[in-house]
Specification:
This protein is of the alpha+beta class and 685 residues long. The chain has a domain of 446 residues. It is 45% helix and 15% strand. It has 27 helices and 19 strands. The strands form six sheets. The protein has a six-stranded mixed sheet with strand order 1-13-14-12-11-10. It has a four-stranded mixed sheet with strand order 2-5-6-17. A three-stranded mixed sheet has the order 7-8-9, with no helix packed on it. A hairpin with a 2-residue loop joins strand 3 and strand 4. The chain starts with a strand and ends with a helix.
Amino acid sequence: MNLKNFPPRTAASLYCLWLAACGAAPSPAAPEAEGAVVTLDDVTIGERRHELERIGHTAVVQLHADGFAALSLRDKLLAYHLVQAATAGRDIYLDQRFAYNLPLRWVLESLYLVKDQLEPAVAAEVERYTKLFWVHSGIHDYHSTQKQLLGLTWEQFAAACAKAEAAGHRLSLRELAPLHDLREVFAVLTDPATFRSVTDKSTEDGNDPLRASCNNLYVGVASADLAGFVERHGLNSRLVKQDGKLVEQVYRCGDGRVVPPGRYAEPLAKINEHLRAALPYAPLPTQEALRRLIRYHQTGDLRDWREFNIAWVQDRDSVVDFTLGFVEVYLDPRGIKGSWEGIVSYRDAEKTRSIAALAAEAGWFEARMPWDERWKKPNVVGIAARAIEVVTETGDSGPITPVGINLPNEADVRQQYGSKSVNLANVVAAYNHTSGVGSVGEFAASAAEAERARRHAAAMDDVHTNLHEVVGHASGQVAPEIENPAQRLGLYYSTLEEARADLVGLYWLADAKLRELGLVPDADAVLAKYESYARNALVQLRRVPKGGRLEEDHMRNRQLVVHWLLANDGGVQVERREGKTYYVVTSAEAFRAGCGRLLAEVMRIKAEGDFAGGKALVETYGTKVDPQLHQEVLQRLEGLGLPSVTGFVQPELRLVRGAGGKVVDVVVEYPNDLAAQMLRWSGRR
């Protein structure tokens, strides 16, 4: 599981980092018109650029990988080849999100490449929309899941396409397929009534989530079709209804002998080429994991995926690490099918110390969890925790990135072999550099609350993230008869699991154990975190489309926790002054106690596979948006210049060759340009 926030493949919410960071440069002013592209050449720290531009409420930030130069040449070369694998697989995720994303990208990039030849207003809209497409990995907003609309008329669009074709960018049926012509392309990009949500989990008024969601994980399949159907490749297949029967199209490249190629065969074969190139530079435990991953890409057999995860989680000491595969299930309304992602990183030894301290105490926390003894693990094994510096993230992890990860997701592997928990240290640092004081002044209920946030919130977000990942996701056990709680809880599993991990972090943050470990300075710091968590339930509403409901699991999770506490004497209350709403923490003790009660119930629901209980909890507290409160929040945030979303331009690695062409070094470079990187990765520049 990952902490995908802004707050997302969880640790401190990225969003909370925006809202309450301390000591950073002020955020630049908001663009005059919604959606304008604003270049931010002055947002630097020394000679280093951080926030590069704004596209409406989306910020583009350069990610930096400090410390890479100090790695050994073997580790640098290992990272280099793993990065090539990560970029080779990025288009898989685009196709998973929406069947038309790849041809739409071709068209949009073609228009972008001739924007200097277009009318200024058309060029500006092409630039705005194409950059949003790059950041959000398609035409749907990453967090709200709703389609973003291109603001051109047909005449403007057709004229721009003619310019692109005249410049040599083909827009024939071959490039547009499976779309049929430019008229259909235009309709997909501009019609608000079609392909509205990439993931729609609502079941209200008879809505079928599989039919309502336009992701490319299901074709012609309704929820009713799944009754009695047993999936062999739930994580790594597309489910298609053909001639009245359900067919699993397995993601695999084949082995050239027994196993035939399947879906995504070409990119998976390319990924394997780069993984083989990485093998000579990998330590023995990493080699073992890579070989098993290569085999899994060939067969698509989930038994091979399990063997890879076992090898990967036991590779605890290697400097360079990676996540590559069909991992997180947030895109799927059923919470079953994995989205492809790639992350390449190396250990930050200094920052690893605090997160490793939590991992060493995992058994202590488990024995004292505020839930039934039946759901406590008798033995906590193999939790490896580290802070990492990300080199590259693609697919479901980039340009929009998590700040914390706990893997593998497979419960049996975690229980028998352990898990890895990581804090993405340079991602967190980038948010701290660019977020400014955020919304604290507007949504803090008092000057004292605002001051606590400025002193403590960023550091406590980091501690909460580590608790969420290291202690939260790794904790608890389910009833023996509940083999797969994700399948039992269906639409609601991911929201409940993120809530469970968040609640673990909130509950233990206030314990004396955290002060003993030197991670929390005092009660004021705990209160600051509780207040920022409550405020975030208000501020994150800006990501919800007007008239909509919450669909993204991390956003649902936070609403669920705060609104349950509001309704159940959990130390939070609503105050309204001068037309403004505040969520006020009245008692840190009551807040912690409330988190403990809710945590016990969420753990019970997971352990027993209680679908009805999980549905009631999520639908009552986690999905609904008060339209008046929503409008109020939007109005209060309008003038603050806060980004709703941050997308990262990734570091890039370059081989340095000496005499005779021998590689003598690998250096990290910073493009500082979203368009240049995206076009380069698409093979268009």
